[in-house]
């Protein structure tokens, strides 16, 4: 069961990271091109929003999913951990 859970989280994070890369990590150029109505930038932004929503949905489905996300983030090199910022996908509940 744990293997399936980790595989599920890794898959959704991989999709999210691919969307981040496609949207140039939402850098200033991507934001400007999106503002100017560039079709490619707008498609990349829409794909990123969809991937982020899917990732949040799966990661926040259980505490175990959140723990796996934290573990994966901790395994990343510092630079990747900072730029990917997977931990922002976790919604803390009381």
Any overview of this molecule?
The protein starts with a helix and ends in a 10-residue tail after the last helix. 18% of the residues are buried. With 94 residues, it is mainly α. It contains five helices and no strands. The longest helix is centred in the first third of the chain and has 21 residues.
What is the topological layout?
Elements: H1 2-22, H2 28-35, H3 39-59, H4 63-75, H5 78-84
Supply database-style keywords.
94 residues; 5 helices
Give a short summary of the structure:
The chain is mainly α and about 90 residues long.
Percent range of helical residues: over 70%
Secondary-structure element series: HHHHH
Largest sheet geometry:
none
- DSSP, total strands: 0
- What overall form do the CA principal axes indicate? elongated
Rg computed from alpha carbons, rounded to a whole number of angstroms: 14 Å
State the distance separating the first and last CA atoms.
Answer: 26 Å
Poorly predicted runs:
none
**Can you count the helices?**
5
- The class by helix and strand makeup works out as mainly alpha
Instruction: Compute the average pLDDT.
Output: 94
How large a portion of the residues is in β-strands, by DSSP E?
under 5%
